[in-house]
Amino acid sequence: MFTAPPADASVPRLRHAVRDLLARESVPAGPGTLDGLLLIVSELVTNAVRHAAVLSPRITLEIAVSPRWVRIAVGDDHPYRPKALAADHGRTGGRGLLLVDAIAAEAGGHYDVDHTPGGGKIVWAALPLRRG
């Protein structure tokens, strides 16, 4: 598990930490899966930084790897449960969860949001690993 302050600098720091962990552990994530996972990390951490910082002194990122799946989970102390918004071509931004959903679905995985016992939330995505 990684923890970080809800600050912009945490986004690349946590993305690099996940990339390095996956490489160090020789997780069999092909280039497409790895790119998708790293984009999911960026989107989920960015959302926590932008929307939960007021109530979260820290955000957490947990990565779990099984023989068939890898799961990325980002937690914060804000109680609001986010939902993927419909695409609005007149807006910039606001499409992070749509992107997470699309990446997960295309890979054969899924994402969801769970409440924590302390009143916060964990937004997670799980993607299957392809064995060569």
TrEMBL record:
The keyword Nucleotide-binding applies. InterPro entries: Anti-sigma-factor_SerPK, HATPase_C_sf, HATPase_dom. Keywords: ATP-binding, Kinase, Nucleotide-binding, Serine/threonine-protein kinase, Transferase. The keyword Kinase applies. It comes from the Bacteria. Residues 35-130 form the Histidine kinase/HSP90-like ATPase domain. GO terms for molecular function: ATP binding; protein serine/threonine kinase activity. This is ATP-binding protein. It comes from Streptantibioticus silvisoli. It holds the Pfam family HATPase_c. PANTHER family: ANTI-SIGMA-F FACTOR RSBW, ANTI-SIGMA-F FACTOR RSBW-RELATED.
